[in-house]
TrEMBL record:
Top-rank lineage group of the source organism: Eukaryota
Gene: Fcgr3_2
Matches recorded under InterPro entries: Ig-like_dom, Ig-like_dom_sf, Ig-like_fold, Ig_Fc_receptor
Keyword Disulfide bond: yes
Name of a matching Pfam family: Ig_2
PANTHER family cross-referenced by the UniProt entry: FC RECEPTOR-LIKE PROTEIN 4, IMMUNOGLOBULIN FC RECEPTOR
Keyword tags: Disulfide bond, Signal
One GO cellular component term noted in the UniProt record for this chain: external side of plasma membrane
Biased composition (Polar residues): 57-70
Chain ranges of the Ig-like domain: 5-70
Higher taxonomy: Eukaryota, Metazoa, Chordata, Craniata, Vertebrata
One Gene Ontology MF term: transmembrane signaling receptor activity
Protein name: FCGR3 protein
SUPFAM superfamilies in UniProt: Immunoglobulin
Organism, as annotated: Pitta sordida
An annotated GO BP: immune response
C-alpha cells in the first residue's frame, strides 16, 4: 500500500549525537519520486523563515536553543 498523503514527506536528521558548535542539517525528502522543491521548516511550531537551500536546513553553530521539535 502507498503511504497516506500525510506520510509522503519525511524529515531526515543526523543519526549521531550532536554537540554545541556542530553543524546540523535537516533534510525534507519524499517517499516516492515526487520532487521536493518548496519546503517550510518549523521549530516548536514557529516558522523558520530565512535562506534555505532547497529542501535542507542547516543550523550552525549548533546551540542549546536549537533543541526541540522540528
Amino acid at each position: 500500500n502507498p503511504p497516506c498523503p500525510t506520510d509522503w514527506l519525511v524529515l531526515q536528521v543526523p543519526a549521531r549525537a550532536l554537540l554545541e558548535g556542530d553543524t546540523m542539517t535537516l533534510r525534507c525528502r519524499s517517499w516516492g519520486k515526487l520532487p521536493v522543491t518548496k519546503v517550510r521548516f518549523y521549530h516548536e511550531e514557529k516558522d523558520l523563515r530565512g535562506p534555505h537551500k532547497g529542501s535542507e536546513l542547516s543550523l550552525s553553530p549548533l546551540q542549546q536553543h536549537h533543541s526541540g521539535r522540528y
